[in-house]
């Protein structure tokens, strides 16, 4: 820890501040002897958390030795103006692309949107989407109501529950008399009935052993 503190103190000796960027980071250089040769050391002291990816390109190039001299304030101002202009052009291009996509979507729905702004087209698209949702809900409601009507007519009752189909018998059962007349005893009559008639008029006789 003491060694690090000493190295830091020595680094202050002979160092020269060459500039700072818009984020508040400071850039320094210093002439040092290394292996019998005089070399130049360059470094940056961050204002906040160290993040080399956030450094401007011109200062990154200077630190790596790609460029010889440090960027001047005039050069930095010109570069910042160029970057701001590039950002505006990119935003304008993106807006035009969004207008083109929105106009194509409206054209597919049969709406002419040549003279509409992006904001107006977005409003119109929301209205169309809401209308589609309402139509879908109305169609679903009509289907439900038609099923309810069919159920009521079929069942004859005021109920929206779906009815269960049951097969109908071929004919209704006849009522059974309360006191049915017992069949005549053939032995009591003393004579057996013989079959009579043919075809549709056939009448069976009484069986006898």
From TrEMBL:
Coiled-coil parts of chain: 76-109
Superkingdom of origin organism: Eukaryota
Transmembrane stretches, start-end: none
Polar residues bias: start-end ranges: 159-170, 198-209
Chain intervals for the UniProt region annotation (Disordered): 129-209
InterPro entries reported for this sequence: ComplexI_NDUFA12 (IPR052618), NDUFA12 (IPR007763)
Basic and acidic residues: bias regions: 140-157
Key words, A-Z: Coiled coil
Family, similarity comment: Belongs to the complex I NDUFA12 subunit family.
Name of the molecule in the record: NADH dehydrogenase [ubiquinone] 1 alpha subcomplex subunit 12
Organism: Riccia fluitans
């Amino acid at each position: 820890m003491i060694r690090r503190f000493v190295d830091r103190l020595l680094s202050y000796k002979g160092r020269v501040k060459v500039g700072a960027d818009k984020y508040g980071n400071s850039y320094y250089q210093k002439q040092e002897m290394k292996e019998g040769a005089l070399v130049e050391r360059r470094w940056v002291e961050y204002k906040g958390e160290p993040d080399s990816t956030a450094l401007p390109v011109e200062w990154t190039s200077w630190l790596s030795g790609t460029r010889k001299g440090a960027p001047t304030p005039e050069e930095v101002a010109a570069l910042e103006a160029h970057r701001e202009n590039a950002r505006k052009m990119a935003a304008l291009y993106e807006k035009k692309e969004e207008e083109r996509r929105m106009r194509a979507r409206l054209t597919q729905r049969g709406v002419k949107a040549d003279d509409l702004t992006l904001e107006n087209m977005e409003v119109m698209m929301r209205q169309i989407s809401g209308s589609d949702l309402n139509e879908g809900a109305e169609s679903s409601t009509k289907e439900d109501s038609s099923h309810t009507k069919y159920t009521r007519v079929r069942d004859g009752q005021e109920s929206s529950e779906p009815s269960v189909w049951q097969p109908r018998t071929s004919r209704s059962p006849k009522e059974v008399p309360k006191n049915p007349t017992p069949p005549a005893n053939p032995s009591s009559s003393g004579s057996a009935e013989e079959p009579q008639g043919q075809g549709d008029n056939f009448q069976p006789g009484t069986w006898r052993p």
